[in-house]
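Extended Data, panel c. Modelled sequence:
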Amino acid sequence: MANEAYNKITEKIDSVSGELKELALALHEHPELSFHEFFACENLSKILEKYGYKVHNNVAGLETAFMGEMKGKADGPTVAILAEYDALPMGHACGHNLIATMSVGAAIGIAEVMKDVCGRVLVIGTPAEEGGGGKVIMCDKGIFDDVDFAMMIHPHKRNLIQRGGLAVKHVKIEYFGKPAHGTRPEEGINALSSVIHTFNFMDAQRAILPFKSNVNGYIIEGGKASNIIPEYASCEFCIRGDIVKDLLVVEDALNRAIKTANTLFGTTSKAVSGLMYTERYSNKLMDETYKKHMEAMGEVVEYPEPNMKYGSSDIGNVSLEVPTIQPYLKIADADTHTHEFEKATKSEHALDQAIKGAKALALTAYDIFESPELQKEIKEEFKAKVPKYTREQLGYFSEK
């Protein structure tokens, strides 16, 4: 039965491969920034509806979020296939055009066997991963409360499973002082001095920050003229921690820096924090299931080195809610967020890889649907491995 279902799924994806490649190229040619993915949202919704999905728009109150739904023959687990589709200012240099295409392709493939499956497939369109935290907002709003398993694939320069991610938050700080002529600095309050102190004090605290913490920042505005004491200055920091609790320690250190700057120089300040992207917990059983299918298609899938450096993504927040995977699929030798990778995400090789990715996702979803024992083991791993944070720690504020 499994082999027959596998064949139905892969043959269906092969039959629509041309349409999927056209979708990937269309998204590449219409890059849209966070929360402005109107072209992507419309086109992804249309293709899902074409293949039998009931599509809901404005999910979690987000104008460019959607959810496609298809039910099986009876009740069972809900598998969510996540789609990202926002771009960077330099275009699709992170390959989200391919992410969306793989997820839609997987949805079309699994739809071929849903009449024989107990459960439900959701295709959740998650905007603003590059800035804005669409998935964070969705977690806050409870969108994943009725989801049992979640998955997506990210383009990369390597085939990887079990790659993690760091917790991250962006903080913008504004300092307010008093202007004065440069020859009479004692009559002013120097807002730029507070900015500079913030950087220096964060550097001084590095030795007492948790292991794997990372702090970067830049000055947004430092004044208007060299002979005027700046009455306003601002900066932004990107702070990271290995886990949420470590990130909160780094945030406390930043708050200490702000407080001491105001005390030393007499400024006042305003700090605005962005949403927190949490660390990521990739479910090993789900990843291994994906790996099995990808290697059956000729790919070699590796594991990350112990000292591999990680970035951050809002998929981490989802991985705190439900068993989740985001394996990486090699499409080029270039690093993401580069012009080389942006060009690669529309190459014929990348498009062919996306078809493989769609198949691997769909087959993984099918295996989960068909094995209550696998479902149980996945959830047991999740329960044993994933920590429980309070909504306050995560910065969530919606009533549930």
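The CA atoms of residues 61 and 316 lie 21 Å apart. This feature is highlighted in the accompanying rendering.
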